[in-house]
Amino acid sequence: MGGALGMASGIFIVPILTTAFGLNVHLAIAASLVSVIACSCASAAPFLRDGFTNIRVAIVLEVATTIGALSGVALSGLLSNQILYGLFAFILIVSAKQMLAKRQDIAETINSAAMRDVATLLRLHSSYPSQDGGTIQYRVQRVPLGLGFMYGAGLLSALLGIGSGVLKIPAMDAALRLPIKVSSATSNFMIGVTAAASAAAYFVRGDIHPGLAAPIALGSVLGAVLGGKLLMSLSGERTRLFFVVVLVALAFQMTLLALGGEL
């Protein structure tokens, strides 16, 4: 699931370890971050090879995401788990609503001001291969807004032990106007760096246990490779709908956890 949607497996691993296996949430987050790093390494290579990943966008956005992740580590002991789950559920619902909205400005006319925007100066515009063998050009928009979203994604990534792809992809979709496959592939490339920034702090704290993290990472890597192949075979609209369904399901689970229940 994580590999197919460009958000690694952390978003699924933490609820599974805490609800199904009764593991302490901090240990679950630490093990999840290790699996996120492994998933990113395993699934990013095929997307890079096939031309879906926008490396320039990833490098620019990763600066904000990493700073957010380090901020999240500093705040990790200040907020209760219920508050974090409730906040996360709210953001998931908003993200799902945003991704369902039809984008009317995707083919808007490029005026002279747009030609001098940040994305143009940084040469972030690119293309990706279409299913019929051609290429599809796209333009990156509203980079400063995207940087703000990425800071928030990194912050929640560290607080909840997720790869932040579940938030990065809606952010890239809403702010930067990237095609969904490009968002997923670029997110796969980025999540390992974000998770590494957080995992280092958890390692220093002694929360990462190799006996727990290693088998989780191995299983996640296999799934990520298979999921990456699935993403490249799906159409953009099916991928978007698939992602929205997962967002809503996760929001429901996080709401239950915020209210003291579980599923």
UniProtKB/TrEMBL annotation:
The keyword Transmembrane helix applies. InterPro entries: TM_pro_TauE-like, TSUP. This is Probable membrane transporter protein. The keyword Cell membrane applies. The chain crosses the membrane at residues 12-45, 57-77, 83-100, 145-167, 216-235, 241-260. Keywords: Cell membrane, Membrane, Transmembrane, Transmembrane helix, Transport. It is a multi-pass membrane protein. Its main location: membrane. It is found in: Cell membrane. Belongs to the 4-toluene sulfonate uptake permease (TSUP) (TC 2.A.102) family.
